[in-house]
Design a protein that fits this description.
mainly beta
Protein backbone atom coordinates (compact mmCIF):
# COMPACT_ATOMS: atom_id res chain seq x y z
CA UNK A 1 0.00 0.00 0.00
CA UNK A 2 1.44 3.37 -1.04
CA UNK A 3 0.43 6.49 0.92
CA UNK A 4 0.91 10.15 -0.01
CA UNK A 5 2.01 12.60 2.65
CA UNK A 6 1.86 16.37 3.09
CA UNK A 7 3.97 18.29 5.55
CA UNK A 8 1.97 19.19 8.66
CA UNK A 9 1.71 22.80 9.68
CA UNK A 10 1.70 22.31 13.43
CA UNK A 11 4.82 22.31 15.62
CA UNK A 12 4.65 20.55 18.97
CA UNK A 13 6.68 21.80 21.89
CA UNK A 14 8.03 18.94 23.95
CA UNK A 15 9.45 19.24 27.41
CA UNK A 16 12.35 16.88 28.08
CA UNK A 17 14.68 16.31 30.98
CA UNK A 18 18.35 17.03 30.37
CA UNK A 19 20.81 15.90 32.99
CA UNK A 20 23.08 18.48 34.55
CA UNK A 21 26.11 17.16 36.33
CA UNK A 22 25.18 13.52 36.89
CA UNK A 23 22.59 10.76 36.85
CA UNK A 24 19.30 10.81 38.70
CA UNK A 25 19.23 7.36 40.24
CA UNK A 26 16.41 4.99 41.04
CA UNK A 27 16.68 2.24 43.61
CA UNK A 28 19.97 3.40 45.15
CA UNK A 29 23.33 4.61 43.86
CA UNK A 30 24.92 2.66 41.01
CA UNK A 31 27.62 3.48 38.46
CA UNK A 32 26.03 4.42 35.15
CA UNK A 33 27.10 5.82 31.79
CA UNK A 34 25.62 8.99 30.40
CA UNK A 35 23.96 8.64 26.99
CA UNK A 36 23.65 11.76 24.86
CA UNK A 37 21.22 11.99 21.96
CA UNK A 38 21.65 14.40 19.06
CA UNK A 39 19.48 15.06 16.03
CA UNK A 40 19.89 12.66 13.11
CA UNK A 41 18.74 12.93 9.48
CA UNK A 42 15.01 13.58 9.09
CA UNK A 43 13.02 10.98 7.15
CA UNK A 44 10.87 11.80 4.10
CA UNK A 45 8.02 9.88 5.73
CA UNK A 46 6.24 9.96 9.06
CA UNK A 47 5.98 6.51 10.61
CA UNK A 48 5.02 4.96 13.92
CA UNK A 49 4.57 1.49 15.43
CA UNK A 50 7.41 0.06 13.37
CA UNK A 51 11.02 -1.06 13.63
CA UNK A 52 14.41 -0.92 11.92
CA UNK A 53 17.16 -3.50 11.37
CA UNK A 54 20.72 -3.20 10.05
CA UNK A 55 22.03 -5.33 7.19
CA UNK A 56 25.22 -4.49 5.24
CA UNK A 57 25.40 -0.84 6.22
CA UNK A 58 21.72 -0.03 5.74
CA UNK A 59 18.78 0.20 8.13
CA UNK A 60 15.61 -1.40 6.75
CA UNK A 61 12.09 -0.34 7.72
CA UNK A 62 9.32 -2.75 6.67
CA UNK A 63 6.33 -0.40 6.61
CA UNK A 64 4.64 1.67 9.30
CA UNK A 65 1.43 3.27 10.52
CA UNK A 66 0.71 6.90 9.68
CA UNK A 67 -1.26 9.61 11.47
CA UNK A 68 -4.72 8.61 10.17
CA UNK A 69 -4.17 5.04 11.50
CA UNK A 70 -3.80 3.53 8.03
CA UNK A 71 -0.88 1.26 7.20
CA UNK A 72 1.82 1.83 4.60
CA UNK A 73 3.65 -1.36 3.59
CA UNK A 74 6.48 0.30 1.69
CA UNK A 75 10.02 -0.80 2.53
CA UNK A 76 12.51 2.02 3.10
CA UNK A 77 16.23 2.05 3.79
CA UNK A 78 18.59 4.42 5.53
CA UNK A 79 22.21 4.32 4.35
CA UNK A 80 24.40 4.71 7.43
CA UNK A 81 27.38 6.06 5.46
CA UNK A 82 25.61 8.53 3.16
CA UNK A 83 22.85 9.34 5.67
CA UNK A 84 20.22 9.08 2.95
CA UNK A 85 16.77 7.48 2.99
CA UNK A 86 15.47 5.57 -0.02
CA UNK A 87 12.20 3.91 -0.99
CA UNK A 88 13.02 0.42 -2.30
CA UNK A 89 9.77 0.42 -4.34
CA UNK A 90 8.96 -2.93 -2.73
CA UNK A 91 5.99 -3.41 -0.39
CA UNK A 92 5.45 -6.11 2.19
CA UNK A 93 2.85 -8.65 0.95
CA UNK A 94 0.61 -7.83 3.94
CA UNK A 95 1.23 -4.27 5.17
CA UNK A 96 1.36 -4.20 8.97
CA UNK A 97 2.33 -1.98 11.87
CA UNK A 98 3.09 -3.04 15.46
CA UNK A 99 5.97 -5.35 14.61
CA UNK A 100 9.62 -5.98 15.45
CA UNK A 101 12.17 -7.10 12.86
CA UNK A 102 14.15 -10.29 13.52
CA UNK A 103 17.30 -10.60 11.39
CA UNK A 104 17.75 -14.32 10.72
CA UNK A 105 19.71 -16.52 8.34
CA UNK A 106 17.78 -19.23 6.54
CA UNK A 107 18.43 -21.41 3.49
CA UNK A 108 17.83 -18.39 1.23
CA UNK A 109 20.27 -16.07 3.01
CA UNK A 110 19.71 -13.20 5.42
CA UNK A 111 16.03 -12.51 5.92
CA UNK A 112 14.18 -9.81 7.84
CA UNK A 113 11.29 -11.60 9.55
CA UNK A 114 8.19 -10.06 11.11
CA UNK A 115 5.59 -12.05 13.03
CA UNK A 116 1.97 -10.94 13.01
CA UNK A 117 1.21 -7.28 13.59
CA UNK A 118 -1.80 -5.05 13.00
CA UNK A 119 -3.12 -4.83 9.45
CA UNK A 120 -4.79 -1.91 7.70
CA UNK A 121 -8.25 -3.06 8.84
CA UNK A 122 -7.25 -2.96 12.50
CA UNK A 123 -6.97 -6.74 12.88
CA UNK A 124 -4.23 -8.45 14.87
CA UNK A 125 -2.99 -11.09 12.43
CA UNK A 126 -0.76 -14.15 12.76
CA UNK A 127 0.98 -13.85 9.37
CA UNK A 128 4.74 -14.53 9.23
CA UNK A 129 6.52 -12.50 6.55
CA UNK A 130 10.12 -12.18 5.38
CA UNK A 131 12.06 -9.73 3.22
CA UNK A 132 15.47 -10.54 1.72
CA UNK A 133 17.65 -7.43 1.27
CA UNK A 134 20.01 -9.17 -1.17
CA UNK A 135 17.26 -9.97 -3.67
CA UNK A 136 14.60 -7.42 -2.80
CA UNK A 137 12.01 -10.20 -2.48
CA UNK A 138 9.28 -10.23 0.16
CA UNK A 139 6.95 -13.15 0.85
CA UNK A 140 4.54 -14.73 3.33
CA UNK A 141 5.78 -17.83 5.17
CA UNK A 142 2.47 -19.68 4.88
CA UNK A 143 3.72 -22.84 6.57
CA UNK A 144 4.52 -21.21 9.93
CA UNK A 145 2.13 -18.48 11.08
CA UNK A 146 2.72 -16.98 14.51
CA UNK A 147 1.05 -19.31 17.07
CA UNK A 148 0.83 -16.87 19.99
CA UNK A 149 -2.55 -16.63 21.73
CA UNK A 150 -3.93 -14.84 24.77
CA UNK A 151 -5.79 -16.88 27.44
CA UNK A 152 -9.09 -16.04 25.69
CA UNK A 153 -7.78 -17.77 22.53
CA UNK A 154 -7.34 -14.49 20.66
CA UNK A 155 -4.39 -13.86 18.35
CA UNK A 156 -1.67 -12.26 20.46
CA UNK A 157 -0.10 -9.08 19.15
CA UNK A 158 3.57 -9.56 20.00
CA UNK A 159 4.34 -6.06 18.64
CA UNK A 160 7.58 -4.70 20.17
CA UNK A 161 8.29 -7.89 22.11
CA UNK A 162 10.51 -9.79 19.67
CA UNK A 163 14.28 -10.32 19.84
CA UNK A 164 16.99 -12.67 18.50
CA UNK A 165 19.55 -14.96 20.14
CA UNK A 166 21.82 -17.29 18.14
CA UNK A 167 19.74 -17.13 14.95
CA UNK A 168 16.43 -17.82 16.66
CA UNK A 169 13.69 -15.26 17.19
CA UNK A 170 11.84 -15.05 20.50
CA UNK A 171 8.38 -13.50 20.81
CA UNK A 172 7.53 -12.40 24.35
CA UNK A 173 3.98 -12.07 25.64
CA UNK A 174 1.35 -10.26 23.59
CA UNK A 175 -2.02 -8.58 23.73
CA UNK A 176 -5.52 -8.79 22.24
CA UNK A 177 -8.24 -6.15 22.00
CA UNK A 178 -12.02 -5.89 22.05
CA UNK A 179 -11.68 -3.15 19.42
CA UNK A 180 -9.82 -5.34 16.92
CA UNK A 181 -11.42 -6.62 13.74
CA UNK A 182 -12.97 -9.14 14.18
CA UNK A 183 -13.71 -8.31 17.83
CA UNK A 184 -11.93 -10.30 20.50
CA UNK A 185 -11.41 -9.42 24.18
CA UNK A 186 -9.00 -7.22 26.10
CA UNK A 187 -6.38 -9.67 27.26
CA UNK A 188 -2.63 -10.23 27.74
CA UNK A 189 -0.40 -13.27 27.38
CA UNK A 190 2.50 -14.88 29.25
CA UNK A 191 3.44 -17.04 26.29
CA UNK A 192 6.97 -17.10 24.88
CA UNK A 193 7.64 -18.65 21.48
CA UNK A 194 10.88 -19.30 19.60
CA UNK A 195 11.21 -19.41 15.82
CA UNK A 196 13.98 -21.40 14.14
CA UNK A 197 14.36 -20.35 10.47
CA UNK A 198 16.50 -23.42 9.73
CA UNK A 199 13.91 -25.94 10.93
CA UNK A 200 11.52 -27.81 8.64
CA UNK A 201 8.38 -26.10 7.43
CA UNK A 202 5.52 -26.34 9.95
CA UNK A 203 8.07 -27.15 12.67
CA UNK A 204 9.73 -23.77 13.18
CA UNK A 205 7.84 -22.62 16.29
CA UNK A 206 8.52 -23.97 19.80
CA UNK A 207 6.82 -23.03 23.07
CA UNK A 208 9.31 -21.75 25.67
CA UNK A 209 8.93 -21.12 29.44
CA UNK A 210 6.24 -18.46 30.00
CA UNK A 211 6.81 -15.05 31.51
CA UNK A 212 6.03 -14.54 35.19
CA UNK A 213 3.83 -11.54 34.39
CA UNK A 214 1.49 -11.42 31.39
CA UNK A 215 1.85 -8.23 29.32
CA UNK A 216 2.20 -6.83 25.85
CA UNK A 217 4.34 -4.12 24.21
CA UNK A 218 7.41 -5.38 26.05
CA UNK A 219 10.78 -3.78 25.24
CA UNK A 220 13.24 -6.71 24.98
CA UNK A 221 17.03 -6.55 25.16
CA UNK A 222 19.75 -9.20 24.91
CA UNK A 223 23.10 -9.48 26.67
CA UNK A 224 24.98 -12.62 25.68
CA UNK A 225 22.35 -15.35 25.62
CA UNK A 226 20.13 -13.77 28.26
CA UNK A 227 16.91 -12.06 27.22
CA UNK A 228 15.49 -9.21 29.31
CA UNK A 229 11.75 -8.48 29.10
CA UNK A 230 11.42 -4.84 30.13
CA UNK A 231 8.17 -3.14 31.09
CA UNK A 232 5.24 -3.32 28.70
CA UNK A 233 1.51 -2.98 29.31
CA UNK A 234 -1.34 -4.73 31.00
CA UNK A 235 -4.74 -4.38 29.32
CA UNK A 236 -7.50 -3.38 31.70
CA UNK A 237 -10.78 -3.23 29.75
CA UNK A 238 -9.01 -1.49 26.88
CA UNK A 239 -6.91 0.83 29.00
CA UNK A 240 -3.20 0.11 28.68
CA UNK A 241 -1.26 0.55 31.92
CA UNK A 242 2.53 0.64 31.85
CA UNK A 243 4.10 -2.22 33.78
CA UNK A 244 7.28 -1.84 35.87
CA UNK A 245 8.08 -5.56 35.67
CA UNK A 246 11.44 -6.73 34.37
CA UNK A 247 12.34 -10.39 33.87
CA UNK A 248 15.35 -12.24 32.50
CA UNK A 249 15.75 -15.65 30.91
CA UNK A 250 18.96 -17.37 29.90
CA UNK A 251 18.01 -19.23 26.76
CA UNK A 252 17.54 -22.89 27.65
CA UNK A 253 16.74 -22.31 31.32
CA UNK A 254 13.58 -23.77 32.83
CA UNK A 255 12.02 -20.47 33.90
CA UNK A 256 12.26 -16.69 33.88
CA UNK A 257 13.82 -14.79 36.79
CA UNK A 258 12.57 -11.57 38.33
CA UNK A 259 14.77 -8.49 37.91
CA UNK A 260 14.50 -5.09 39.60
CA UNK A 261 11.24 -3.30 38.79
CA UNK A 262 11.42 -0.15 36.75
CA UNK A 263 11.27 3.13 38.69
CA UNK A 264 8.63 5.84 38.66
CA UNK A 265 9.14 7.91 35.52
CA UNK A 266 7.59 11.33 34.91
CA UNK A 267 5.35 13.65 36.88
CA UNK A 268 2.32 11.36 36.72
CA UNK A 269 3.97 9.02 39.23
CA UNK A 270 3.78 5.95 37.00
CA UNK A 271 6.34 3.17 37.43
CA UNK A 272 7.29 1.51 34.17
CA UNK A 273 7.48 2.16 30.44
CA UNK A 274 5.96 0.64 27.32
CA UNK A 275 6.32 0.81 23.52
CA UNK A 276 9.99 1.82 23.58
CA UNK A 277 13.35 0.65 22.21
CA UNK A 278 15.87 -1.14 24.44
CA UNK A 279 19.55 -1.65 23.57
CA UNK A 280 21.64 -4.26 25.42
CA UNK A 281 25.45 -4.36 25.36
CA UNK A 282 27.79 -7.07 26.61
CA UNK A 283 31.00 -5.11 25.94
CA UNK A 284 32.29 -1.65 25.18
CA UNK A 285 31.45 1.70 26.70
CA UNK A 286 27.97 0.47 27.68
CA UNK A 287 29.01 -3.09 28.52
CA UNK A 288 26.78 -4.86 31.02
CA UNK A 289 23.96 -2.33 30.65
CA UNK A 290 20.65 -1.90 28.88
CA UNK A 291 19.62 1.54 27.63
CA UNK A 292 15.92 2.29 27.21
CA UNK A 293 15.68 5.12 24.67
CA UNK A 294 12.51 6.93 25.70
CA UNK A 295 9.61 5.90 27.89
CA UNK A 296 6.13 5.29 26.57
CA UNK A 297 3.28 5.46 29.04
CA UNK A 298 0.31 4.99 26.73
CA UNK A 299 -1.23 7.22 25.45
CA UNK A 300 1.65 9.55 26.32
CA UNK A 301 5.42 9.52 25.91
CA UNK A 302 8.34 10.79 27.98
CA UNK A 303 11.86 11.67 26.78
CA UNK A 304 13.64 9.96 29.68
CA UNK A 305 16.54 7.68 28.80
CA UNK A 306 16.89 4.96 31.43
CA UNK A 307 19.74 2.52 32.00
CA UNK A 308 19.75 -0.83 33.77
CA UNK A 309 23.04 -2.16 35.12
CA UNK A 310 22.67 -5.92 34.97
CA UNK A 311 25.22 -6.85 37.62
CA UNK A 312 23.91 -4.52 40.32
CA UNK A 313 20.26 -4.63 39.29
CA UNK A 314 20.01 -0.84 39.48
CA UNK A 315 18.12 1.61 37.30
CA UNK A 316 19.35 5.14 36.54
CA UNK A 317 18.21 8.04 34.41
CA UNK A 318 21.20 8.80 32.15
CA UNK A 319 19.89 11.31 29.63
CA UNK A 320 16.91 12.39 27.58
CA UNK A 321 15.74 12.27 24.01
CA UNK A 322 15.46 15.62 22.26
CA UNK A 323 11.80 14.81 21.63
CA UNK A 324 9.49 12.63 23.67
CA UNK A 325 8.33 9.69 21.53
CA UNK A 326 6.86 6.19 21.71
CA UNK A 327 6.40 3.41 19.13
CA UNK A 328 9.59 4.58 17.42
CA UNK A 329 11.82 2.41 15.25
CA UNK A 330 15.26 1.64 16.63
CA UNK A 331 18.58 0.17 15.51
CA UNK A 332 22.21 0.19 16.62
CA UNK A 333 23.94 1.78 13.62
CA UNK A 334 27.32 1.71 15.35
CA UNK A 335 29.05 -1.29 16.87
CA UNK A 336 28.83 -3.11 20.17
CA UNK A 337 32.01 -1.36 21.34
CA UNK A 338 31.02 2.03 19.96
CA UNK A 339 27.23 2.10 19.89
CA UNK A 340 25.14 4.61 17.98
CA UNK A 341 21.54 4.03 19.01
CA UNK A 342 19.25 5.39 16.31
CA UNK A 343 15.57 6.03 16.95
CA UNK A 344 13.23 7.26 14.23
CA UNK A 345 9.65 8.47 14.11
CA UNK A 346 6.98 7.34 16.54
CA UNK A 347 4.20 9.30 18.18
CA UNK A 348 5.03 12.58 19.90
CA UNK A 349 4.42 13.26 23.60
CA UNK A 350 0.61 13.17 23.48
CA UNK A 351 0.06 11.04 20.39
CA UNK A 352 -1.23 13.94 18.28
CA UNK A 353 1.62 13.85 15.77
CA UNK A 354 3.63 11.20 13.93
CA UNK A 355 7.27 12.24 13.91
CA UNK A 356 9.68 12.30 10.97
CA UNK A 357 12.72 13.12 13.06
CA UNK A 358 15.51 10.78 14.12
CA UNK A 359 18.00 10.88 16.98
CA UNK A 360 21.31 9.12 17.55
CA UNK A 361 22.56 8.28 21.03
CA UNK A 362 26.19 7.71 22.02
CA UNK A 363 27.90 6.82 25.27
CA UNK A 364 29.34 9.63 27.36
CA UNK A 365 31.09 9.64 30.72
CA UNK A 366 30.78 7.03 33.42
CA UNK A 367 28.90 8.69 36.24
CA UNK A 368 29.75 8.30 39.89
CA UNK A 369 26.11 7.76 40.78
CA UNK A 370 25.30 10.85 42.84
CA UNK A 371 21.78 12.16 42.10
CA UNK A 372 21.74 15.48 40.30
CA UNK A 373 19.28 18.22 39.49
CA UNK A 374 17.55 18.58 36.16
CA UNK A 375 17.04 21.40 33.74
CA UNK A 376 14.25 21.95 31.23
CA UNK A 377 14.86 21.65 27.49
CA UNK A 378 12.40 22.74 24.81
CA UNK A 379 12.60 21.01 21.44
CA UNK A 380 10.51 21.19 18.29
CA UNK A 381 8.82 18.22 16.69
CA UNK A 382 8.39 18.01 12.93
CA UNK A 383 5.80 15.63 11.56
CA UNK A 384 3.58 14.66 8.66
CA UNK A 385 -0.18 14.57 8.36
CA UNK A 386 -1.76 12.18 5.88
CA UNK A 387 -3.79 13.33 2.87
CA UNK A 388 -6.07 11.36 0.55
Amino acid sequence: MRMRFARGGSIALVVGLVLSGGAALAGGASPATNVKFKAGPEAPFGGTRFDGAVVDGKVYFLGFRILDNSTDGSIWTYDIKTKKYKDTKVDMPVPVSNYTIAVLKDKNGTGLYIFGGRDNDGASINTTQVYYPATGKASVVKSDPFPGKTPSDCVALAATGVTVVNNKAYALGGMSFATSIPPCVDDVSKQVWSFDPMARAKKRWTAEPPLKTARGYISPAVIGTTIYAIGGDTNDAGTLNASPKVESWKVGAKKWSAETDMPVVGDAGIAGCDESQAFGFAKGALGGTITLAGCGQWPNALPDVLQYTVKSGKWATVGALLEARRNQAGANIGTTKKPQMMVLGGYNSDGSLVLTTSEIGTAGKTLAGAPAGTSVHFGSATGFAATN
